[in-house]
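Task 17 of the worksheet. Students: predict the tertiary structure of the chain below and write it out as structure tokens. Keep your answer in the requested format; marks are given for formatting as well as content.
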Amino acid sequence: MTTFKAMQYGPLGKAVAAAMPHTEADPIGVYAATLSLWSAAVAGKVFQPSGRPTAFWSALVGRSRVGRKGFALATARAILDPSIGSFLGTRMRKGISSGPSLVTTLFEVEQESLTSEDGRDGRVMIAEGEWASVLKRANRDATYHDQLINAWDGEAVVNTTKGKGGKREEQRIDVPLLGYHVHIQPGRWAPLVKPEFALGGAFNRIPHFLVNQSKSLPSSVKKPLDAVKETPALTRAYRWARERAREMELSPEAAARHDAYRAEFDDRMASLPEAVSCFIERGDENLLRIACLLVAAERKTVISVKAWEAAHAMIEYSMACTEKLINEAQQGTGRQMKSVEQIIRESLTRYGGEATRTLILRSLGTRGNADSMEAAIEKMPDVVMEKRAGSAKGGPKPVVVRFVDATREHERPAVQQAQEQNEHQEDEEVEERPKLTVVPAQRKATAVRPPAKKASEPVRKSAPRKAATKRAATSPPQKESANPLAGLL
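Model answer:
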């Protein structure tokens, strides 16, 4: 599973790493909380290449005490407080569990800012230490999740209230600037994260991270977080971000990587049941939001490949955590997530012993990607991945995964062969995805096809077969059939 080191990038990553000796929290939990607080602080100033917001929301999922979720949030505050001034001290809220109260909170904060020296400022950071309690109430409100979705999307949120004399008044925030960070225990996740709200998109906008205690600090250290110092680079970055609006852009290399990832991500989502994909189907945009925030901390507007890769590692880790939560929620029903190797074998069996790389990736869904598939195939002595000759019309060579054990390479119907040829043609663009090294068959000592028998060797046949052969010898020669299935019948 991806480590914090793979996600660490820029001033934000360095600040979290520097704080870790002074906290018992999970470094990934601290990183997720820091990114959420940072995104709320620069809300309304840093935008994606499309102009959409860069709000990054997060949920830490861990057992009480051993998860150290509260430690993670406290460490994130210790990292950012010196750099972003009074923002967290004046704009953090909690206990909001209905759509009307959410809109009212945003509206009141924005109205209060109109009399300040800096003018209109509707930034709000919601941090819920007990998300389970909030969800119990929020799940009974028809508007809470819808208003959250609108805020994440950057769409207007509206609430109608009764003013003096019973007159109806509208509370409207055209550009909601909302940060969101929550904590919950794994055992309370499944009963409260309701599928009907997940299908509506309420939870795929909130990446989940499983967390555990990183270590125990000596009891003699009474306030360990006091040792966390200001990060000057973040102080400068915050001032830079608040000066004016910044629209980020992908470098050409990062854009190519992101386009390839999106194509793969779409395949993964299409292969999953909707009840599973609904939890993670905003993964590609969350990846881009993370990358934008990481680069903004460098006071840059161009997203490099390294920044994209760090964001990719983080969102892939989050989706793996969500998969684990779904798996544990299904244990009581007897339904279990399968390993990458099991899925590859079942897929090859289903497709007659051979399938394109894209078909296997679709079967894996969120259980793996191209790299994990390659790693699993390396460990499977009877499976190989290789390139085939291209079509007569040219184009990329299809990549196939197949059994190499002759006993498992059974004949496939001609109709299925034709379907797979069409799938080879459909995969032309997908075959150019980066970071997938094809594994030649000759690299595996055990993956060798048995030598073919020489034409001169006698063929042993059963008794009934001999009789049939004898009758054929006395019959007049037949004209060769043009039917390609004749040799199989």
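Marker's comment: The longest helix spans residues 305-330. The two ends are 49 Å apart (CA to CA).
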